[in-house]
Design goal:
globular, nine-stranded mixed sheet, 4 helices
Length: 172
Amino acid sequence: MTDFHLVVTDRLELSATDPARDVDGLFPIWSDPASWKHAPDSRHAEPQQTLDWLERSAARWETDGLSYWTARLRETGAVVGAGGARRHVTGSWNLLWRIASEQWGKGLAVELGAAATEAAHAVDDSVPVIAWIRSHNPASRRLAEKLGLVEHSERVDEEDGVARIPYADREI
């Protein structure tokens, strides 16, 4: 099996999340109110929340062979976001992207999402790749469509009980 701890795309270096290395770069992104206008209750108020998220993400690499990455610009090494694919409670792949608000509109989330979808298919193509998106988040819905994901009817996400629209690469 291919090792996806480090993936390089045209503009991004995607490296497996590392709690010790990544908290300072990601906390400003995870705490930015602009980045959470569609889910303000999920915004990180303290660096410890980001560290906890990073620790959960890093642990999944061992169990699932794939999890979330920290995204850096190849040109500068600057942290610009996080995302990737990890196992959802249903066994499918959960697709995530979170890009620094000052980097929006440059296609970085599409680049990250495409790399994550490709990696998920390489690790286990027997299950769908799903982006769970709140209905009032049109930017993420458009991004999912750019990735070739298809909208399904809104349902409650089994992981957290929140109603979302699943966008998937196949029937779910």
